[in-house]
């Protein structure tokens, strides 16, 4: 079993030739050296197929060990409920994007109405 990661262990890992190091506190959480970056990732068995799968949590040091552990624990909770973390993350990102698009349209509509306010008159403008 892997030892619990500490900042000292991470610093040692960064200076070594090793490509990845796992956390003993949260199973599946690991720090991985890629060609141009160092990332936190969570390794798990895909729901349904049981195929080994990775999901990127974020870049190190932008994401701290504490935050990476919290996110990995959330992913473990999703798995316990039969929800694939990659699917959940993708759906969440799409929902955020849709919400941003709505806000953008709403903002553009209000700007348009402000521009047309003088043309249609104050009384009619308030009906919008």
Structure overview:
The chain is an alpha+beta fold. The chain has two domains: 1-82, Integrase, DNA-binding domain (Double Stranded RNA Binding Domain, 2-Layer Sandwich), CATH 3.30.160.390; 84-128. Helix content is 52%, strand content 19%. The protein is built from four helices and four strands. It has a four-stranded antiparallel β-sheet, with helices on one face. The longest helix is centred in the last third of the chain and has 36 residues, at 85-120. The chain is elongated, with a radius of gyration of 23 Å. Pfam families: Arm-DNA-bind_3. This is DUF4102 domain-containing protein. Residues 5-92 form the Integrase DNA-binding domain.
Report a brief summary of the structure.
This protein has 128 residues and is an alpha+beta fold. It is 52% helix and 19% strand.
What brief labels describe this structure?
single chain, 128 residues, alpha+beta, Double Stranded RNA Binding Domain, 2 domains, 4-stranded antiparallel β-sheet
Secondary structure layout plus pairing:
Blueprint: H1 7-15, E1 20-22, E2 29-33, E3 38-45, E4 52-59, H2 65-80, H3 85-120, H4 122-126
Antiparallel strand pairs: 1-2, 2-3, 3-4
Proportion of strand residues: 15-25%
CATH level-two architecture of the largest domain: 2-Layer Sandwich
Order of SSEs: HEEEEHHH
CATH topology of the largest domain: Double Stranded RNA Binding Domain
Calculate the mean pLDDT score and round it: 88
Distance between the termini: 64 Å
Q: What structural category characterises the helix and strand content? A: alpha+beta
Specify the CATH homologous superfamily of the largest domain: Integrase, DNA-binding domain
Number of strands: 4
- Radius of gyration over all CA atoms, rounded: 23 Å
Specify the biggest β-sheet.
4 strands, antiparallel
Helix content: 40-55%
Just give the CATH class of the largest domain: Alpha Beta
Order of strands, main sheet, comes to: 1-2-3-4
Number of domain units: 2
Quickly count the helices.
Answer: 4
Low-confidence stretches: none
Apparent shape:
elongated
């Amino acid at each position: 079993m892997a030892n619990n990661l500490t900042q000292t262990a991470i610093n040692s890992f960064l200076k070594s030739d090793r490509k990845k190091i796992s956390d003993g506190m949260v199973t599946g959480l690991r720090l991985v050296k890629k060609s141009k970056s160092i990332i936190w990732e969570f390794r798990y068995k895909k729901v349904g197929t049981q195929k080994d799968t990775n999901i990127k949590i974020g870049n190190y040091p932008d994401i701290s060990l504490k935050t990476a552990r919290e996110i990995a624990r959330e992913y473990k909770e999703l798995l316990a409920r039969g929800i694939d973390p990659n699917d959940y993350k993708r759906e969440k990102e799409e929902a955020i994007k849709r919400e941003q698009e709505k806000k953008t349209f709403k903002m553009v509509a209000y700007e348009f109405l402000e521009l047309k306010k003088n043309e249609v008159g104050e009384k009619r403008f308030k009906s919008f």
